[in-house]
Design brief:
about 80 residues; about 20% strand; mainly beta
Amino acid sequence: QPQLNKAAKSTELAEKGDRNPKDFVLFSGGFEAVGTWRDNTGRLEFVEDMVFPTLDFPSDHAVLSTELRFKLRRPSQQEL
């Protein structure tokens, strides 16, 4: 949905634009992150210091994607 309440003039974006992180990927200690990607354009790209929403990307949240894998547990000496 459009975020019209967050609209600002192009000359005011640096002062009024919201650049605070809002989204997190949380996971338990049994996993490890293989890679994380962000997109704030809708074209699988992330532009640093871009204020959004924009007309092309009408969300105030970036898209986050994280690939997780199970951590391998090494058996203790007692288990061997």
